[in-house]
Amino acid sequence: MTNSTKTYVGPDRGLPFIIRVLWFFLVGWYVLLPWILVAWLLNLTIVGMPFGVWMLNRVPLVLTLRTQRGY
Predict the structure, then answer these.
(1) Taking Cα atoms as reference points, which of 67, 55, 3, 1 lies closest to residue 31?
(2) Minimal CA–CA distance to 14: which of 68, 70, 71?
(3) Please, which of 14, 18, 63, 67 could form a disulfide with 28 given CB 3.0 to 4.6 Å?
(4) Which residue has the higher pLDDT, 43 or 5?
């Protein structure tokens, strides 16, 4: 006889909105340009390309601290 329990895991809501707004205005804009420049410099090399593409895919996270939503 098995005892199976069902566990509901809700969506990850991430950081509170006010924290993300403060990050956007105080940090995000200043970090964004160097982040993109480093990513494109890495994309110039074959060895650095995977990390450069990874960095470009995370530009919205760096700017707003908003995580990607699952499908």
Answers:
(1) 55
(2) 68
(3) 63
(4) 43
